[in-house]
Specification:
- With 155 residues, this protein is an alpha+beta fold.
- It is 35% helix and 26% strand.
- The chain has a 6-stranded antiparallel sheet, with helices on both faces.
- A hairpin with a 4-residue loop joins strand 1 and strand 2.
- The protein binds methionine sulfoxide (SME).
- Methionine sulfoxide binds next to strand 1, helix 3 and strand 6.
Length: 155
């Protein structure tokens, strides 16, 4: 996505406002999903997975978009599970070229997953699916990493 420094500041300010507003952590995480999905046209599914490092398991948390059957994902499995293992943002510009991928819908063409940390432990992930091929740039990764730092206390 393209944004100016001023637009970036506005997005960050809004994310911080959501996190410090009234409501449960679940409600706030869902509000962040709604905000991101509305803000970026090609973000078609936005959701959080909660990580259990001991069990090496990701469990689906708040999300917006079509329901998914992938409510529990083991570390190493699919894009989300691989991102949990490498502990780094994972960008797939064309899921049709990816063999270790868990499909939610034939409409999904690309995916970006950003790990969320508490200290050096992975607490969860922000997962975004797009119906567009190759939509993501470094700007998406940079913005979403900042969002993940802001929401980390909610996990
Ligand atoms: N495609 C993901 C599964 C989760 S959904 O995108 C919501 C994956 O391969 O891990």
């Amino acid at each position: 996505m393209y944004y100016t420094e001023q637009e970036l500041d506005e997005i960050i300010t809004e994310a911080k406002r959501i996190v410090s507003a009234d409501g449960s952590n679940q409600e706030k995480l869902k509000a962040v999903c709604e905000f991101l999905k509305e803000k970026v046209k090609y973000y078609d599914w936005v959701g959080f997975y909660i990580a259990d490092e001991e069990k090496r398991l990701l469990t689906l948390g708040p999300f917006v978009g079509e329901p998914t059957e992938h409510t529990r994902i083991s570390f190493g499995q699919g894009i989300c599970g691989q991102a949990a293992e490498i502990k780094k943002p994972f960008v797939i510009q064309d899921v049709r070229k990816e063999t270790n991928y868990l499909s939610c819908s034939v409409k999904v063409m690309s995916e970006i997953v950003i790990p969320i940390f508490k200290g050096d432990k992975i607490a969860g992930e922000l997962d975004i699916d797009s119906h567009t091929v190759s939509p993501f740039s470094e700007k998406d990764t940079n913005l979403l990493e900042k969002i993940c730092e802001i929401v980390a206390p909610l996990l």
